[in-house]
Amino acid sequence: MPLGVVLRRAPGVTRWKKWSWKAVAVLPGAGTANWREMRRQGDWVEYHAATVSLDLHGAETEAYRNALSDSRPSVFVVLRPEEGSDGDRPTV
């Protein structure tokens, strides 16, 4: 299933880190994305950064059930520095 990932960019909290990135939403069934700006407020911006394939594995069924039935359902997004960039955008 395609899953869009929405990231929020806010100013970094230290002088060594220009930006702080946080996954704030997912979009089930999303189309292709390429850092499309979705919302801007004050000094932060939200982007539909990427659409990735959500692959589920049978051996992880219990963990999925626990994560999704919690009082606050969650998915986990892994970000890493984009190769060849100055760190302005992570790779999802």
- Helix and strand content put the structural class at mainly beta
The rough form would be described as: globular
Number of self-contained structural domains:
1
- Average predicted local confidence, pLDDT: 90
Tally of strands: 6
What is the element string, with H for helices and E for strands? EEEEHEE
Helix content: under 10%
Question: Largest sheet, if any?
Answer: 4 strands, antiparallel
Strand content: over 45%
SSE layout and pairings?
Layout: E1 2-14, E2 17-28, E3 36-41, E4 44-53, H1 61-69, E5 80-81, E6 90-91
Antiparallel strand pairs: 1-2, 1-4, 3-4, 5-6
Provide a descriptive summary of the structure in words.
- With 92 residues, this protein is mainly beta.
- It has one domain (2-82).
- Helices cover 10% and strands 49% of the residues.
- The chain has 1 helix and 6 strands, in the order ββββαββ.
- It has one helix spanning 61-69, and strands at 2-14, 17-28, 36-41, 44-53, 80-81, 90-91.
- The chain is globular, with a radius of gyration of 15 Å.
